[in-house]
């Protein structure tokens, strides 16, 4: 069992979509989880339907959503860098790695969650993942944590192989739904559709929930 977990992602909701289950299982086991969210997703296009956010208010709304999702998951140490959304690819890679390294040396995680470099699709995902790997490679080999990386580019399995871990997160499916609901600005339409399906066809609950009950991770070799 891992006791110290470090999750590092660029945007509010990155910790939830495809990762909430694993993080919730760690929290349930009593692990200490530190989350870095580098931006507040200020440039996100989804602002509710009907709109309940605008470009000026979105960052505050998404911060609130993030904190609610982390409460649901069980993440107590949430660190916001408040960097500008959609700009991480333009940051100095060494300076970004310096920021990651400082937290790694403080937290001393046994396990790190991030995206798989070059397979995170969004430039912010890839830039922060690359900085994270760069920081971890600075550590003596015997001190480097295990890295569980998420990948979802179209060619990811052709380039990096099948996932090393396919995790059954069905025991925390209610937590996953709560975290998804918290990110209302990003998930409102999906959650409304999902809950309607569960109401209309309760006998198909397992089938409907199947996409949320397995999470895929690749172990990044350091």
UniProtKB/TrEMBL annotation:
Q: Which InterPro entries match?
A: BshB2, GlcNAc_PI_deacetylase-related, LmbE-like_dom_sf
Which terms does the record give in the GO molecular function aspect? hydrolase activity, acting on carbon-nitrogen (but not peptide) bonds, in linear amides
User: What's the domain of life for this entry?
Assistant: Bacteria
Q: Which cofactor does it need?
A: Zn(2+)
Q: Which NCBIfam families match?
A: thiol_BshB2 (TIGR04000)
The name under which this protein is listed is LmbE family protein
**Species per Swiss-Prot/TrEMBL record:** Neobacillus massiliamazoniensis
**Lineage from the top down?**
Bacteria, Bacillati, Bacillota, Bacilli, Bacillales
């Amino acid at each position: 069992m891992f006791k110290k977990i470090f999750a590092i992602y660029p945007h509010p909701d990155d910790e939830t979509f495809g990762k909430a289950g694993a993080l919730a299982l760690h929290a349930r086991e009593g692990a200490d989880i530190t989350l870095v969210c580098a931006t507040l997703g200020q440039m996100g296009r989804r602002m509710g339907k009907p709109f309940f956010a605008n470009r000026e208010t979105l960052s505050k709304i998404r911060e609130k959503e993030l904190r609610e999702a982390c409460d649901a998951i069980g993440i107590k140490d949430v660190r916001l860098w408040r960097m500008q959304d959609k700009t991480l690819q333009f940051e100095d890679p060494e300076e970004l790695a310096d920021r990651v390294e400082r937290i790694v040396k403080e937290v001393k995680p046994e396990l790190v969650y991030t995206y798989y470099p070059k397979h995170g699709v969004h430039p912010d995902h890839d830039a922060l993942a690359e900085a994270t790997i760069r920081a971890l490679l600075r550590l003596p080999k015997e001190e480097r944590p295990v890295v569980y990386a998420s990948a979802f580019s179209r060619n990811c399995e052709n380039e990096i192989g099948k996932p090393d871990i396919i995790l059954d997160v069905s025991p925390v499916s209610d937590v996953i739904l709560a975290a998804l609901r918290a990110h209302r600005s990003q998930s409102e339409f999906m959650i409304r559709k999902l809950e309607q399906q569960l109401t209309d066809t309760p006998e198909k609950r397992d089938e409907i929930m199947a996409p949320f009950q397995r999470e895929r991770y690749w172990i990044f070799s350091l």
